[in-house]
């Protein structure tokens, strides 16, 4: 097992595209580290550089204490699982699993023993004699995971391995991956554009944007204090309300007079927005104490919650997450208040967190 250090990693493709822009990452030994970001942000290129499938323009990658820049993939002692399972179609599950071990020249009794242990772990025992075309998508993906597992690499690198599964299977296999990683304690770098996957899997998450790292933190840190306006708009569904605010007299006020708890030390000479999660706002009957007047624009019922869009006199309406027991119809006059602690505040010009 080994941690992974990425220092000033830079990748410019021959056509001039800068896919990875001086990225630093320090991934701990045994950590499940997620790289999250929108399409094209450089996640896959970073992962492929770790794997040795892509040569970086500059920068260093260490796996454990080994500088791997010049090592081919086979000598890096990592196992990759991709979005496309790439099983050998003519081989039964057992031989698909055995393939990398036979390629390493392991004796046959050990191959058999490792294949059976991995199959048991991924609950594939009853599928060992089937070929891939007779396996479901989820089963094929479990075979691909088991094939990575048999090798006992120093690290797993996973690139959107669940993308081709339906929602229910995705949740099941996600749980299996999480258990497996915890049990083996093997470092795992997991690439996804799906924030639910990132939040539920990652010990820490790196949020990438345009080839750069915007934030590295635990799921809660990333959710509660997004490090930039980009992260604030990217994390959460619906995402934070970005409410323009004035700092005056120790108070933070949004348009329409919405009062927010003030984080200390706010600069007064900048254009600021507060990042207010939908669950940190509350819709009430009109004229309740401590509320400002608003009007329901729409109510989206999601079963376990309702998302109200509320016009409160600002340029932009706000989204409010409420329990399904609330009933405010579209056009209804309502009260609106902030119920959370101090929200993170961002400088519109630098797009950075100021408090
Ligand atoms: P996705 O989630 O869509 O896979 P990603 O975050 O993994 O995206 P990359 O695949 O790493 O992003 O791509 C980063 C950038 O590099 C994108 O702008 C992409 O178009 C570009 N890119 C990727 N491969 C090449 C290539 N071979 N030549 C030129 N540009 C490339």
TrEMBL record:
Name the source organism: Nocardioides aestuarii
Entry's SUPFAM superfamilies?
Answer: MOP-like (SSF50331), P-loop containing nucleoside triphosphate hydrolases (SSF52540)
Note the CDD domains from the entry.
Answer: ABC_MalK_N
Gene3D superfamilies per the record?
2.40.50.100, Nucleic acid-binding proteins, P-loop containing nucleotide triphosphate hydrolases
User: Which molecular-function annotation in GO is an example for this chain?
Assistant: ATP binding
**SMART domains assigned:** AAA
> Which residue stretches, if any, does this entry annotate as coiled coil?
none
Does this entry carry the keyword Translocase?
A: yes
**Positions of the ABC transporter domain:** 4-235
PANTHER family cross-referenced by the UniProt entry: MALTODEXTRIN IMPORT ATP-BINDING PROTEIN MSMX, TREHALOSE IMPORT ATP-BINDING PROTEIN SUGC
Q: Which UniProt keywords apply?
A: ATP-binding, Cell membrane, Membrane, Nucleotide-binding, Translocase, Transport
| Identification of the protein by name | ABC transporter ATP-binding protein
């Amino acid at each position: 097992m080994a941690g992974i250090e990425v220092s000033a990693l830079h990748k410019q493709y021959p056509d001039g595209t800068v896919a990875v822009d001086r990225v630093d990452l320090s991934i701990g030994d045994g950590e499940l580290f997620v790289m999250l970001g929108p399409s094209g942000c450089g996640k896959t290129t970073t992962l492929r550089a770790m794997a040795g499938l892509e040569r970086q323009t500059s920068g260093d990658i260490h796996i454990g204490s080994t500088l791997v820049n010049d090592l081919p993939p086979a000598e890096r002692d990592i196992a990759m699982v991709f979005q496309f399972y790439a099983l050998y179609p003519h081989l039964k599950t057992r031989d698909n699993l055995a393939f990398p071990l036979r390629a390493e020249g392991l004796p046959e009794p050990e191959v058999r023993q490792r294949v059976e242990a991995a199959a048991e772990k991924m609950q594939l025992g009853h599928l060992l004699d089937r070929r891939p075309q007779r396996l479901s998508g989820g089963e094929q993906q479990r075979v691909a995971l088991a094939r990575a597992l048999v090798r006992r690499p120093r690290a797993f690198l996973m690139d959107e391995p669940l993308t081709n599964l339906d929602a229910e299977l995705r949740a099941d296999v996600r749980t299996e991956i999480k258990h497996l990683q915890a049990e083996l304690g093997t470092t795992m770098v997991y690439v996804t554009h799906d924030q639910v996957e990132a939040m539920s899997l990652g010990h820490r998450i790196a949020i990438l944007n345009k080839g750069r790292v915007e934030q590295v933190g635990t799921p809660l840190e990333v959710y509660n204090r997004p490090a930039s306006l980009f992260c604030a708009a990217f994390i959460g569904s619906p995402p934070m309300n970005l409410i323009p605010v004035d700092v005056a007299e120790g108070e933070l006020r949004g348009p329409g007079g919405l009062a927010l708890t003030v984080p200390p030390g706010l600069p007064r000479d900048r254009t600021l927005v507060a990042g207010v999660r939908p669950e940190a706002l509350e819709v009430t009957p009109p004229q309740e104490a401590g509320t400002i007047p608003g009007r329901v624009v729409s109510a989206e019922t999601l079963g376990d919650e309702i998302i109200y869009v509320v016009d409160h006199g600002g340029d932009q309406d706000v989204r409010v997450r409420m329990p399904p027991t609330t009933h405010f119809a579209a056009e209804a006059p309502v009260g609106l208040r902030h119920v959370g602690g101090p929200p993170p505040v961002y400088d519109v010009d630098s797009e950075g967190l100021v408090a």
